[in-house]
């Protein structure tokens, strides 16, 4: 079984995690929680983009200030994903298995549709 790495294991994640030929994810993207093996996005399913960081739900809950996200344009591109709260135009994405989140967000007003998973709210597993 291939080993799962935390985001912090990568020295330069915006290059280490990315296939330079097409800007897609070079690793399977898994739930960030240690004992959860939920596959969120398969290798090659998403592209790296820069967006506004995840809006904190309150001051004590800042999941990530990272501006880099894995982007997909269709819900069906996920292997597994859940929705937690909706606040205004923002639907927060969570792990489908353990509900940890927010891992990212979906702005319902944004066209074309996009679903974003923060690159530091995930773990990474190599795939051949
Ligand atoms: Zn999980």
Could you explain the architecture of this structure?
- By secondary structure, the chain is mainly beta.
- The chain has a single domain, classed as Beta Complex (Metal Binding Protein, Guanine Nucleotide Exchange Factor, Chain A), CATH 2.170.150.
- It has a six-stranded antiparallel sheet, with no helix packed on it.
- The longest helix has 4 residues.
- Bound molecules: zinc ion.
- Zinc ion binds next to loops.
Helix-strand blueprint:
Blueprint: E1 5-6, H1 13-16, E2 18-19, E3 24-25, E4 27-30, E5 39-41, E6 47-50, E7 68-72, E8 82-87, E9 90-94, E10 104-107, E11 115-118, E12 123-126
Antiparallel strand pairs: 1-12, 2-3, 4-5, 4-12, 6-7, 7-11, 8-9, 9-10, 10-11
This protein binds zinc ion (ZN).
The site of zinc ion has 8 residues, from loops.
Radius of gyration: 14 Å
Please tally the helical runs, counting DSSP H or I stretches of 4 or more residues. Answer: 1
Helix content: under 10%
CATH class label: Mainly Beta
Mean pLDDT: 94
Listed once per kind, the bound small molecules are: zinc ion
Question: How far is the N terminus from the C terminus?
Answer: 12 Å
Strand percentage, roughly? 35-45%
Write the element-wise H/E pattern from the N-terminal end onward.
EHEEEEEEEEEEE
Widest beta sheet: strand line-up: 6-7-11-10-9-8
Number of strands: 12
In terms of structural class, how would the helical and strand content be classed? mainly beta
Please state the second-level CATH architecture: Beta Complex
Task: Write down the overall geometry.
Answer: globular
Major sheet summary line: 6 strands, antiparallel
């Amino acid at each position: 079984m291939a080993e799962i790495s935390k985001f912090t294991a990568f020295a330069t994640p915006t290059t280490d995690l990315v296939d330079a030929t097409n800007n897609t994810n070079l690793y399977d993207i898994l739930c960030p929680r240690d004992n959860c093996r939920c596959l969120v996005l398969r290798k090659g399913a998403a592209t790296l983009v820069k967006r506004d960081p995840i809006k904190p739900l309150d001051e004590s809950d800042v999941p990530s200030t990272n501006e880099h996200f894995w982007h997909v344009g269709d819900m069906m591109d996920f292997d597994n994903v859940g929705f937690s709260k909706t606040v205004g135009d923002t639907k927060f994405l969570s792990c489908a298995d353990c509900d940890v989140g927010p891992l990212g967000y979906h702005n319902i007003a944004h066209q074309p549709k996009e679903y974003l998973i923060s690159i530091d709210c995930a773990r990474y597993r190599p795939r051949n």
